[in-house]
Amino acid sequence: MTTEHLMIDIVLVLYAAAAAGYFISGGQRWLGKVSFWLASIGLAANLIALVNRVSLSGRLPLSNGYEFLLSFTFITVLMYLLYEILSENKKAGGVVMLMGTLLITAIIVLMPQQIGETTPLMPALKSPWLTVHVITAIIAYSAFTLAAGLAIIQLRNAISTDDSAIYKIVSAGFAMLSLSIVLGAIWAEQVWGSYWTWDPKETWALVTWIIYAIYLHLHRQRGWRGNNARILVIIGFLLVLFTFFGVNYLLPGLHSYA
Amino acid sequence: MHFYKFVSSMTTGLVLLALIGLASAVGSSLWPDNFFQAWPFRLLLLFLFINMALCTINTSTRFFRHRAKISKNWKILFRSAGLLMLHAGIVLILIGAGLYSYLGHSVQLSILEGDTVEINKVIPVDNSFSLKLHTFSIEFNADGSPSQYYSEMEVLEAGKTALAKTVSVNHPLVYKGVKAYQSSYGYLTDVVVQDGDAAPKTVLAQDGDFIQFADTSRTVKVFKYIPHFDPEIGLETKSMEPVNPRVVYSVYEGTELLGVGAAPFGEPISIDENVSIEFKQVRPYTVLTVKTDPGLPLVTTGGLLLMLGVCMVLFGPSSRKKEVSSVHDN
After folding, report:
1. Is B205 part of a structural domain of the chain?
2. Considering the domain boundaries, does residue B179 fall inside one?
3. In a shared domain, residues B199 and B274
């Protein structure tokens, strides 16, 4: 077992404990606080795992499935904790931390061979575009994950609570996804000679983009609130998951780096 | 007027977007090879373009007409400008992509080391020039995996050097509206054939080629060049580095296989009495994607507008009031 395996297991345990704590806390304040701290220590462990990865590979942790998921989970939990501090609302903690736990589990189950290993970048990935294309994608995915977590909670509580937070987070995610797609297209033109080839990753990223574009228009222009809008946010998140896992494992194409 | 409103309305646009999303998801799964080039999908994109173009034109007219009125609230103005730019960006991208699909070209071009290719023989261009490949080389990582592919190219116009450039992955050659990208590579093998009493001759063989002889009915198939041959692995190369270069060949009598071998370079192989071959050397060729795209400046401008618009809306000042000049009709 390498140091990396150990670190990932620690992150997993802390996130899982935080998720369980949030779920069972109910209205108990002390348990909510403990969960918050468990999640925060988990985030710190996640950061240490990322820094360790950087020192091992000598580059930013953005170039294979494992590195992507580790960064994606980090940003998601970071965004959630900031949201919790700003909104003083812990209700989504259980769902979001469970998502974080599942994402870390996905690393261990789906890509164990990448943990503790570094391989040189393939020629196509040797480009400054890699950093901006992947970072924007990670921020977008994290925002959509957090938005879906909030939407699930609001849907479950079945009360017409204010969904402006979801709208704002989806807006930010949508902007980042737009940047990621355009930056990716600029890079694709540079490396493959074509900015858009309907590669499965491109196609499904576009489908995801379209769902959120529809949500934003309906929410802002048609006053779409309530459960239909929330369901759209959750469908968008399922598409995010499919764009990552489904395309990487079921529909290999030009983006097969995982 | 009703018709115009219908065509340019946001609802129509959203329905079209939903249809495009649904068609992309379903179509790419059912017909992965050619769905996006088929006319029904192109028609959807055309409708979306018409809808968004009209919508964007309407909004910009409104925006500039009411600018004076709302200019006091610069926050709203800023956000509206951002929304307008991102929509206009998408319209430009659709125009540019349309231009490429009707006027653009993209082909795969193989050039053997030392060879020169006249560019308008492979792709229609106004001012033709020639591309010469000096050398093709691969750089390796410590673990033997390829780290970069280099094609040392020269652009020739009227026999004179116009540009010298090393093309590699992520670093295409750009010359007079033509772009050339490192796409693939391969090897041809120089085979010296000794056929009876005739003087030896050299043929250039591609993997899979057959060599026939006058003096024997046997044939030789040049099966595959293997740069790093390892008998344990067999027909797959251990790495791309020429550590133990061999050519795998097979000898036939009619359709009957007589034998298979992995020959090193420079050693004669007897095929029959008075007939022998010798693999002399491999000659690499590069494969470039050569492209012209008159729509690219529009698509690039559109992409930049989209990104700028998105950033203006996201990072710009937020206003609680609804924009006066929203991008959409209400």
Report:
1. yes
2. yes
3. yes
SS3 B324: coil
* pLDDT for residue B330 is more than 60: no
Same domain, B182 and B194: no
Please list every residue in chain B whose beta carbon sits closer than 8 Å to the beta carbon of residue A171. Answer: 313-314
Pairing of strands B268-272, B218-226: unpaired
What one-character-per-residue DSSP string does B217-261 give? Answer: SEEEEEEEEESB--TTT-SS-S-SS-SB-EEEEEEEETTEEEEEE
Query: Is B13 a domain residue?
Result: yes
The pTM of the full predicted model, rounded to 2 decimals, is 0.91
Same domain, B128 and B165: yes
| Pair of tokens at residue B228 | 């790093």
Consecutive 10-residue runs of chain A (258 residues): their mean pLDDT?
91 98 88 96 98 94 95 98 93 95 96 90 94 97 97 81 88 97 97 94 96 94 84 96 89 65
Q: Check residue B149 and report its DSSP letter.
A: E
Select from B183, B314, B319, B321 the residue whose CB has the most chain A CBs within 10 Å, as the one to mutate to test that interface. Answer: B314
User: What is the percent of chain B with per-residue pLDDT over 90, rounded to a whole number?
Assistant: 69
| CA distance readout (Å), A100 to A42, A132, A202, B76 | 10, 23, 25, 37
Task: Tell me how far apart the alpha carbons of residues B258 and A23 are, in angstroms, rounded to a whole number.
Answer: 72
Q: Indicate the DSSP class of residue A256.
A: -
Handedness of CA B26, B31, B34, B39 (dihedral sign): negative
Q: What does the pLDDT look like over B11-56, one tens digit per residue? A: 999 999 999 999 999 998 888 888 998 999 999 999 999 999 999 9
Contact between B205 and B191 under an 8 Å Cβ cutoff? The reply is yes
Q: Residue B41: give the domain boundaries.
A: 2-103+309-315
**Interchain CB contact of B297 with A (< 8 Å):** no
Q: How many domains does chain B have?
A: 3
In this complex, is the C-beta atom of B168 within 8 Å of any C-beta atom belonging to chain A? Answer: yes
A126–B148 CB contact, under 8 Å:
yes
ipTM: 0.91
Residues B194 and B180 in one domain: no
B300 part of a folded domain = no
Cβ atoms A70, A50 nearer than 8 A: yes
CA B304/CA B120 separation, integer angstroms: 32
Amino acid at A139: I
